[in-house]
């Protein structure tokens, strides 16, 4: 049987290892941030400050699945959605760069469509039962 003192010692060791891991992660992040160009740093700061409307995410999820999300599920959905949008933007920027476009030009719908196709080919995340055209006006 483990006594209370031994449990306290283990808990302190776990807390110390978690804190050490966080410190190591912060140090790696600082090293990475030092390598960013000014435009990359500006985009990163915009990404950090941005958020997706929780009300809209809740409505979208309910429309797609018929299920209402609780608060924790909504936080997870917001985080995953933000990462997906970031990946879409990053892929669209890479496509623009491969076409010789300037990084300061705006991302156009065709870049987003191609980025969606690239991500779908790589991960299969965007497959759906019926085909819809992304980023077009009206209904086809």
From TrEMBL:
Record region (Disordered): 1-20
Pfam family, one: TAFII28
Subcellular location: Nucleus
Record-level GO cellular component terms: transcription factor TFIID complex
Cited InterPro entries: Histone-fold (IPR009072), TAF11-like (IPR045127), TAFII28_dom (IPR006809)
Protein family according to the UniProt entry: Belongs to the TAF11 family.
Protein name, as recorded: TAFII28-like protein domain-containing protein
Source species of the chain: Ostreococcus lucimarinus (strain CCE9901)
